Amino acid sequence: MERREEILEAAVAEFAVKGLHGTSTESIASRAGVSQPYLFRLFGTKKGLFLAAVERGFDRIQSLFGEAVAASPDDWMARMSAIGDAYWGLLERREDLLMQLQSYAACSDPEVAAVVRRRYGALYEYAEAVLDAPEDKIRDFFAHGMLLNIAAAMDLPQLAKKEGWAQRCIDQTSIEASMIRQGS
Questions:
Q1: Least packed by Cβ within 10 Å: which of 57, 77, 83, 162?
Q2: Nearest alpha-carbon partner for 88 in 19, 157, 167
Q3: Domains of the chain, each with CATH number or no CATH
Q4: Are 127 and 138 in contact, with CB atoms under 8 Å apart?
């Protein structure tokens, strides 16, 4: 089990940068310190490994949501705020963030699309169940999360030091995050 996790870590790091089609199993095996045959024994194909990495990413997000909800009051606004705060921390793991974006980009592949749609739908329904918030707030919450993904992927905080538009986007993102936390 530990070796499988190490391979998934290596796969996420490689797929995050080069995507499903641009990543070689050789680079993943080398990063993980295993042979390619061993990698194929565990995951079957490169796509199988990619899908395992996608599943792992969604597992982490749902687990993070669950931990945040468990530690917060029963009020939906407080739970949503707790999930939002926890998600900010997840965005700091650049490889996980880029892997998530690569999973969306790879949806031109029907097998990948099926997994991503199933897992995103399950995450959305999970959030609906644990938050018990108005429908428009859930939708806004997920939309805001995607904006945060893009901002983090482009490293807008660094860019904002040089580009006014980036600072305005960050300022608006902060305002929207605050509104979500307050239930506006």
A1: 162
A2: 157
A3: 2-182 (1.10.357.10)
A4: yes
Q: What percent of the chain has pLDDT over 90?
A: 58
Whether the per-residue pLDDT at 84 is higher than 90: the answer is: no
Residue 158 C-beta-side C-alpha neighbours within 13 Å: 4
Q: Which helix (H) or strand (E) holds 160?
A: none
As given in the structure block, the two tokens for residue 154 are: 């482009």
| Residue 140 to residue 144: CA distance in whole angstroms | 6
Contact between 48 and 4 (Cβ < 8 Å): no
Please check whether residue 82 is in contact with residue 72, taking contact to mean a CB–CB distance below 8 angstroms. Answer: yes
Count how many Cα atoms sit within 13 Å of the Cα of residue 165 in the half-sphere of its side chain: 2
In which residue are the tokens 């993102």 written?
173
